[in-house]
Structure formats: C-alpha cells, structure tokens
Ferric uptake regulation protein
Amino acid sequence: MQDQTDRLTRALRAAGVRITRQRAVLLDVLAETEDHPDAVELHRRAEPRVPGLSLSTVYRTLSALEEQGVIQRHQFEGAPARFERAESAHHDHMIDVETGEVVEFRSDRIEELQARIATELGYEIVHHRMELYVRKRRG
Amino acid sequence: MQDQTDRLTRALRAAGVRITRQRAVLLDVLAETEDHPDAVELHRRAEPRVPGLSLSTVYRTLSALEEQGVIQRHQFEGAPARFERAESAHHDHMIDVETGEVVEFRSDRIEELQARIATELGYEIVHHRMELYVRKRRG
DNA sequence: ATGCAGTTGCAAGTCATTTGCAACAAAAAT
DNA sequence: ATTTTTGTTGCAAATGACTTGCAACTGCAT
C-alpha cells in the first residue's frame, strides 16, 4: 500500500505534477475513501491534516488528478460533482434518489449493445454515462 | 396542428398555467424545434416575436413546461441544459463531442437489462440517463 | 368591466467552480 | 548546500447558469 502510493507519486512527478503537502493529503484521503464524496466533503476530510487548506486548492488538485487519470469525476443530477479513484474497472452508477447513496454496477451486455448502436449509426463511443436514479424497493 | 396547440394550451390552462404572449411564442418555438436548444438559444429564437422577452422568463417558462410534462430537460456534460418536446417516445441520446449534435436512439434490450439489474439489487428505477459521447467514425 | 392570482422584466442573489496574482515551496541545477 | 526554476497555494474576485424578490402588469373566470 505504501508501495502503491509511492508508485503513484512517482508517476505524477514524472508527469510534472508536484506532490505538495496538500496534494499528498488529498491523495491519502482519496485512498481511504469508500464512497463518492464531492469537493466540499473532501476538503472537510483533508483540512484537519493541512490546516488552512483552501477549497480552490482542492478543486485544482481534483482537476489535476482527473487529468492524470488518477480519479474520475461524476456529475450526477442536480448535485455538485463527486469523485472516486479510477483504479477500479469501468462501471456505471445507480443513485438512490432518496439518500444520494451511490451503488456501482456493470453490465458487459449493455456495453456491447451501446457499442453496436453507435457503430450502426456511424459513430464510435468516446465515453458514455449511464445512471439509474432509483428508489429502494419496499417489499 | 392548430388542434394540437389548442389542446395543449387548454390542458395548461386547466393546470392553472396562464398562456401569456411570451409563453405562447415559446410554445411555438418549441413546436418548430427539430434540435435540442438551450435556454439562451430559445431566447434568441423567441425574442424577435416578443421584443423585450427576458431570459428569466424563458427559464421560468421552461421550468413550468417541464413540470407539466410538456418538455424534457437534458443536462449533458459540461454544457447548459438543453430542451426538447416530450411528446415523442422515450429515447436516449448520443452526443457528438466534436459538434455538440444530438442523435436520439432507443434500445428496449438495454432498458430491460437496466430494469433487471436494478431489481436484482433491490431497487426500482425512477428514471435513468444514458448518454453516449461519440465521434463520427472516419471510414 | 372587474378583481385577483399568476406572470413579467429587472436587478440582485446563489451555487459550484474557476481564475488572477503575489507569496511560496517542490524539484532541478549548480 | 544553495540557488534557480517553475509548479502551487491562499485569497479575493470572477464566471456561468440559473434562480429569486419585488413592484408593475395581465390573463381570464366571473
């Protein structure tokens, strides 16, 4: 795990991204993250470890990390962008409209169908977004 | 067609929505619309017919019509919301990342799969969003 | 014609995010 | 180890896309 982090910071360094104290902490916070926090929440979690950390630095770091492919940004309906590590395999999201909770899922079958549709219409997919806004089934 | 419009305004009236000059024009503009314009574009198209029309009225009208189920709002990536009439059957969108052009498509097979996935995880779909960001295949 | 609840234009406000800038601090170079 | 170079930071102000308060209207049921 220390290894992971090391490899990562080295890669970032190589890309000309400096690992400052604020970025190191944000990287740690993101590594510990199990949910899909937004910028303000990440700032709340990181600030105690870097007193004075500004929200704009959080935004800037998030953009930098997204550019490096380290994290992914998701813009769900009517809410600020939320982030997650990019390490894991591709998946889509289900958002509980009542709680805001995010559940990940994946369907190769759907991906195939999407690709086929795009191809048939003369396009190639650059990326896609599929979100299911759901509610717990009361049973 | 005059019929259509008449039925529509009557329904709106019944819902307590007044058909003012600005709304009538916006309704007309939307009826003529073949693409997926945003609020500013709709304002641009309607203003000549209602000199002085304000952008806030456009936004307010759009919200009212959306509430009445007359139009649908789509929030594509990194762009202001775009609108379309709601009359047509459900479909999803493919956005050409180079031109911004929107192509509609529909796949019952995918819808089925989505529903199944949600059910399996204990949820029911309230609504979904599926967007394919694409590029013309150069062939 | 009349009264009033729904609408309008305008200015100001909100929210999430971005940016200009001078002070600062990682890496590099020496 | 010190200097130099160049990416970063915090802060305040700016942006973009809407939304809202408010006083002056205006559909439209009566």
Notes: The first helix of chain A runs from residue 2 to 14. The beta strands of chain A are 71-74, 82-85, 92-96, 102-105, 123-136.
